[in-house]
Write a structure and sequence with these properties.
Keywords: Signal
Shape: elongated
Radius of gyration: 23 Å
Order of helices and strands: HEEEHEEEEEEEEEEEEEEEHEEE
Number of domains: 2
Number of strands: 21
Organism: Flavobacterium johnsoniae
Structural class: mainly beta
Strand order of the largest sheet: 7-6-5-4-12-11-10-9-8
Protein name: Heat-shock protein
Strand content: over 45%
């Protein structure tokens, strides 16, 4: 009986020591990349193992934490990416008073060596202490955190620079509902229901894999014009409860946030 009690106690302790990744802790969902708050304040997060390291990239600062020599935390000012011409590869050159770091982010499927989780970006880090001659090289996986402000329902107000009216569509204004945590959207195109995926990186937003129902639309319905503009989007801005979608050529769509 004593042995059974000891075994149960050991199992209980082991369960208590498990990672909280993917679980809710004090109202926040955590993952291998951190908490929801981390994802809201950082546009890109990455981690690696053996030794463990973490990277959090925000608009104001970039923070690198590792267990290379004890617990090391390095803070760098934010810098612009150096972009490759022929591939989705970005390089960041970071430096402060004590260290220099080169971060390379490549759009390539990456598997965490411990959890087995699949991420869309491969990340490599070269870190050099200013007092040392050689840099340490680390590999890991990462992801862009889609702007949480997009997570809402948006109703169309302008299309290709012109105000829209209900008479431009079947029965009501087009709308999209964006799920930023799943990078998906659904809504109404002005005649048919629509849905699809969003691709997000810092400063980049694309609506892709757009599908719709096949209801016949009345003559003059501008659904086709709307969906074409949606799929031509590359950038966005949010201000005064308005979501503006654009590309380098023009402002395409303006939506109003609704509850």
């Amino acid at each position: 009986m004593k042995n059974i009690f000891s075994l149960l106690l050991l199992v209980s302790l082991m369960a208590g020591c498990k990672s909280t990744a993917g679980k809710t802790v004090e109202g926040q969902t955590t993952s291998e990349y951190g908490t929801q708050e981390d994802e809201m304040t950082n546009y890109f997060t990455a981690t690696g193992n053996e030794p463990f390291w973490a990277l959090k990239m925000g608009n104001d600062k970039i923070v690198f934490t590792s267990l290379i020599s004890g617990k090391e935390k390095l803070v760098f000012p934010a810098v612009e990416a150096i972009k490759a011409m022929d591939a989705n590869v970005k390089m960041y050159k970071l430096s402060n008073d004590t260290s220099s770091v080169t971060v390379t982010i490549q759009q390539l499927e990456c598997q965490n060596s411990m959890s087995g989780a699949i991420s869309p970006y491969k990340v490599s880090v070269e870190i050099k202490n200013n007092s040392e001659l050689e840099a340490k090289k680390l590999d890991g996986c990462g992801k862009y955190n889609t702007d949480y402000r997009l997570h809402d329902i948006w109703v169309l107000e302008e299309l290709n620079g012109f105000k829209v009216f209900v008479t431009d569509f079947q029965r009501e204004f087009p709308r999209i509902e964006i799920n930023s945590s799943e990078n998906r959207f659904m809504g109404y195109g002005g005649c048919n229901s629509i849905s699809g995926s969003i691709f997000y990186e810092k400063g980049l937003l694309r609506f892709s894999k757009v599908v719709s129902t096949l209801m016949a639309c009345a003559p003059g319905n501008k659904e086709g014009e709307f969906t074409k503009a949606l799929q031509s989007t590359t950038t966005y801005s949010i201000e005064n409860n308005r979501l503006t979608l654009s590309n380098p050529s023009a402002k395409l769509l303006v939506f109003r946030k609704v509850d």
